Amino acid sequence: MKTKVLFMLIAGVFSTLFMSSCLDTDDDRDINTAAIEKVKLKTYLDSLVAKGHDIDTTEMGIYYVRIEDGDGDFAQPGDTLTVGYAGYFIDGTIFDSSEINSEDGKMEFVLENPPFIAGWDDVMKVMNEGAKVQAMIPSEFAYGSEGYGVVPPYETLVFVIELFDIKPSQE
């Protein structure tokens, strides 16, 4: 009888240890670091170049590909901009878009008042009315090491943005 109880106890302990080792814990997940983000971004940019895209950078260091040239004025701080956009993680997963957030698929905002993420505002300054770009914003110019909402830490954000209208500020 003692042998049977001891066997059941040992079997129970091993079962518990085995099952708990199969659980998904935070330690098992891939965690982005600044170094991992840089490798992912370089790979992504290299793939764009391999497909024949020209990559430019803003003064701040935001990468972008001009999809369509505009023919209007360039955006200035204080201007009211109307844009359409889709935001993706570098793996292609969509996390936000103007289609999701508005009835007409457009968003209106005042440039740098209050500022959006630094990289977003910076890329707006290289767009003129009618332009469409794909912007790659490293986390240091977005949500950094903390992340925000569905955006994890050290996540490069990719936005496809079309600038529909610029209303100059009324200073």
Automatic annotation (TrEMBL):
Keyword line: Isomerase, Rotamase, Signal
Enzyme Commission number: 5.2.1.8
Signal found in the keyword field: yes
UniProt cross-references to SUPFAM superfamilies, sorted A to Z: FKBP-like (SSF54534)
Listed GO MF terms: peptidyl-prolyl cis-trans isomerase activity
Domain annotation PPIase FKBP-type: ranges: 78-167
Signal peptide from the UniProt entry: 1-24
Top-level taxon of origin: Bacteria
InterPro entries noted in UniProt: PPIase_dom_sf, PPIase_FKBP_dom
Leading EC class: isomerase
Xref: Gene3D superfamilies: 3.10.50.40
Reaction(s) catalysed by this chain's protein: [protein]-peptidylproline (omega=180) = [protein]-peptidylproline (omega=0)
Pfam families recorded: FKBP_C (PF00254)
Keyword Isomerase: yes
Family assignment from sequence similarity: Belongs to the FKBP-type PPIase family.
Protein name according to UniProt: Peptidyl-prolyl cis-trans isomerase
Source organism (scientific name): Tangfeifania diversioriginum
